[in-house]
Structure prediction request, 118 residues.
Amino acid sequence: MGFVKEQAPPIKNDKPAIWDLVIADMVHRDRVGRERYGTPLQVNNGRDALRDLFEELLDAVVYCRQLTEEMKCLGVDLRNLHALIMEGRFQGREGVTILASMVESILKRNPALNAENE
Prediction:
């Protein structure tokens, strides 16, 4: 197989199945589209499907790049926070308050980490 190493098989866990999540997302998007346009997406609907796909894929690439940059920032935030914890910078009640404030700031800058969004 060359220099591409096979991945280990997925490990079963108690998290939601991705297919179920995607199907629920698709049902929701269909509902939104029907409400917005008054009709389901159909063939020969007067739109250029290739252009729509191309534009959606461009948007997807931009969102992917945004996520990549946000994950880099999150990694820096977490490494800095870890270093401060290991240095013992959060002592007593005041230290815990500062730590909580830092974690809250990280969560605000990274809304995908906020469980309330589910």
